Amino acid sequence: MLKHDVAGDPITGLKWTHKTTEKIASELKRCGISVSANTVARLLKQMDFRLRVNHKKVASGGTPSHLPEDRNEQFAYIQQMREAFERNGYPIVSVDTKKKEKVGNFTNVGRSWERQPILTNDHDFSSDAIGKAVPYGLYDVTRNKGFVCIGTSADTPTFAIDCLRMWWRLQGHKYYASMGHLLVLADCGGSNGARSRVWKWALQHLLCNPQGLSVTVCHYPPRSSKWNPIEHRLFSEISKNWRGRPLDSYETILKYIRTTKTKAGLKVNARLITKKYQTGQAVSDQDMDALELNRHTTFPNWNYTLSPMKM
């Protein structure tokens, strides 16, 4: 009866069907077998069927240089670098840009306990928004602390570095000033992308040189952002904290980020950045050649260290 309605994973043996238990019970009844929908559900579980949702875990696209073995080797190298920095007591931060949000009385996914439902706009027109929020976050792996900058302009490499600088000035310098080294875990694309010249130039001139800091950057392979610690250690917790609540002002956004906590001790700080950032910036070959950029032997485009320039 389920022959043409069953799918499954040939490796793990996981099976599923799109028919509801009520429809299965109805078809069984036509075959002379009278069972309830609840009994069908129990029997399906005994046959290793479960209610499942789609999981976004299959990487697609990419080029021959992004083969699975390359991904695995990069993951292993990132783990190696993390262990080396941890042994020396050096700081490790995970960085990324969270989903951009329209600021206004718009519906936010999720549910919250309320006496009455919160009324929001019936359409999510951008023209009705107060502005846009660009959350760029840093997760301090060592201290289990978060830092999020809410930008009101564009998500550019310079914006990303300004957020990193602000974190260092307000928090990082206090705890890690004597270390002289920093490991940054980042995605392969976006404002902190591996191919961005502006990202590297700004790291050199806006952070490494002024602070006398050597910064090592390790990028996760393309389409592997879900493994970046900030995703499940910080951003997911922020989303849980403001679920079901309209993000109707920048103050509201900052409040929910700052009140994000976990039983494991996570605390989050947040700042608003109203500076206007220009897109389309470029860095010349000459300026790139002048950087104190040391590319690692393992995947040099994904792993590199920037050291302070000698004056």
Describe this structure in words.
With 311 residues, the protein is an alpha/beta fold. It folds into two domains: 41 residues, no CATH class; 241 residues, Ribonuclease H-like superfamily/Ribonuclease H (Nucleotidyltransferase, domain 5). The protein is 33% helix and 19% strand. It has eight helices and eleven strands. The strands form two sheets. Strands 3, 4, 5, 6, 7, 8, 9, 10 and 11 form a nine-stranded mixed β-sheet that branches. Strand 10 and strand 11 form a beta hairpin. The protein is globular and about 90 Å long. 26% of the residues are buried. About 2% of the residues have low confidence.
List keywords for this structure.
nine-stranded mixed β-sheet, alpha/beta, Nucleotidyltransferase, domain 5, 311 residues, 8 helices, 33% helix, two-stranded antiparallel sheet
